[in-house]
Design goal:
286 residues; mainly beta; Immunoglobulin-like; four-stranded mixed β-sheet; 3 helices
Length: 286
């Protein structure tokens, strides 16, 4: 089964337990450690990619068109275990947008119903065929986002944009795009607080504090409305993008209940951030 692990939909527990507030890592020997292959763009904006316990993962970025800075795009980190479909996965995820959590309203959304029809790579010339909804898009940053997302991948020499098989006017805009269109990432953000449960189950399994990139968690507390910490074990997720609470009493967690979060993190390039805020608990099924 093909898998993509992004900051919003997939969390698996990594091979170490995090104790208390200081998040001390418990090392576990691994005779055949995995590896992560990162694009140059990923390393430029987010530093060294975090390790995985086994298998080969691929770290890359997707650029989203900024609403705050017209013409600019903002990079976000993503991971997949399927190298063969990485371009397709990147464009499909770009079309979905990033209008979630603490980034709500910060990016130009693609039109509702837009979809990737096909993507072909012929000796480095990548042709992206998108549905007719792309014709309603006029922001230059949209073309920049599509172009830069693809150019990071090895062997890509050019990008053509099509709508329903015909050349798109946006193709003109991708010919002269460079890194000047990229807005440098801000300090790390807490993205959302989300509980996961099995489909049809009554109680949740865990509560995830998702961050927008791989981070080292210096401090984290999940508290109730009256300031009491929730009992349970805290883990760090794979790819270092979430802290995961396995609660002792899952029944107390209900959708939309307020969760107080105190956090302090640092990313792989030394950007630090901290916060104290209340988040409505999202509940998702898997």
């Amino acid at each position: 089964m093909k898998k993509i692990l992004s900051i919003i939909i997939t969390i698996a527990l990594a091979g170490f337990l995090i104790y208390g507030i200081t998040f001390q890592k418990k090392e576990i020997p691994d005779e055949r450690p995995g590896k992560v292959v990162a694009t140059t763009a990923y390393e430029k904006y987010f530093g060294p990619a975090p390790p995985v316990d086994k298998g080969t993962a691929y770290a890359f970025v997707i650029y989203f068109p900024s609403r705050k800075e017209p013409g600019k795009v903002v990079p976000f980190p993503f991971f997949t275990f399927d190298e063969g479909s990485i371009k397709k996965v990147a464009i499909e995820r770009l079309l979905v947008g990033m209008d979630i959590g603490s980034y709500h309203g910060e990016f130009f959304p693609f039109p509702s119903g837009i979809r990737l029809i096909a993507i072909n790579d012929e000796q480095g010339m990548v042709t992206v065929n998108i549905s007719k909804e792309l014709n309603t898009v006029t922001e230059a940053a949209t073309a920049h986002a599509l172009d830069l997302t693809l150019y990071q991948f090895k062997g890509v020499k050019g990008v053509r944009l099509q709508v329903e098989g015909k050349e798109s006017p946006l193709s003109v805009l991708v010919k002269n795009v460079d890194d000047n269109a990229v807005q440098q990432p801000s300090p790390p953000r807490l993205l959302s607080v989300t509980a996961m449960r099995d489909k049809g189950a009554k109680n949740i399994e865990d509560v995830n504090a998702f961050f927008d990139r791989p981070v080292e968690v210096k401090e984290l507390k999940l508290l109730s409305r009256d300031g009491q910490p929730f009992a349970g074990d805290l883990f760090h997720s794979v790819f270092d993008m979430a802290a995961v609470l396995k609660p002792k009493d899952p029944e107390q967690f209900k959708e939309r209940m307020p969760i107080k979060v105190h956090w302090k993190v640092i990313d792989k390039l030394g950007r630090q951030a901290e916060g104290d805020s209340v988040w409505p608990l999202e509940v998702k099924e898997h």
